[in-house]
Amino acid sequence: MRILVTNDDGINAPGLQVLEAIAAEIAGPQGEVWVVAPAFEQSGVGHKISYTHPTMIAQMGPRRFAAEGSPADCVLAGIYDVMAGAGPELVLSGVNRGNNAGENVLYSGTIGAAMEAALQGLPAVALSQFYGPGNADLDDPFDASAQHGAATVRALLDNGLWDDAAYRLFYNVNFPPLPAAGVKGLKVSAQGFRPDTRFSVEPHQAPSGRRFLWAKGGAQAVETGAGTDVSANMAGHISVTPLRADLTAHDTLGVLRDRLE
């Protein structure tokens, strides 16, 4: 199997090394793992593509490239340039440092890369490592994802639902903030929502006197309800959430047609 690996934390991020090992196990000895990752951290860019300016790309080693662009740019570079002629059969994105559960899904460059792969008609999985008191101080905070990542991806490839719809399915996986030995297994989960956890901005003044705003997040260890991703992670489970890029609020269509048409 030919696998394209990317992330949003940058080509030197420790989580990318974890994902490369996962991909190598999935690809097998006869397979190929190609890395096209951002040259610099691109967290929070979502599904951005560099539509108005070019993306510089440089080879860093065998089957390893850094692109001066977003995670979605990296997927496009991998498909149409780096692996052109023998493209990927699977795209893996991550392993992100921090969760991409709940409302974080909407901001995540890790998710954006998997979304772009799905829009290109490829099977894709985004993987993220929740950080918390149970793993932040470990020698390897990625222990859960490193030990359980390959089995999770393989379970999805063997038993997951894959389709060829216009907005095809892709998967969002979050590993709990625990050592690998404490992980309780997989939970298929809906995307949750953390009440009262929103991004905001905080003003700061630089030594030059200029005023700047820093984006500021909220609490992450907040229950999101039974059957949802954050709560599954906090209970020690690996959450697996099927996603589509279709943002239509399908539950409202009938009522709106009655009211407006």
TrEMBL record:
Belongs to the SurE nucleotidase family. It is an enzyme of class 3 (hydrolase). Binds 1 divalent metal cation per subunit. It is found in: Cytoplasm. Pfam families: SurE. The keyword RNA-binding does not apply. Keywords: Cytoplasm, Hydrolase, Metal-binding, Nucleotide-binding. Its cofactor is a divalent metal cation. Its main location: cytoplasm. This is 5'-nucleotidase SurE. Gene3D superfamilies: Survival protein SurE-like phosphatase/nucleotidase (3.40.1210.10). Nucleotidase that shows phosphatase activity on nucleoside 5'-monophosphates. The keyword DNA-binding does not apply.
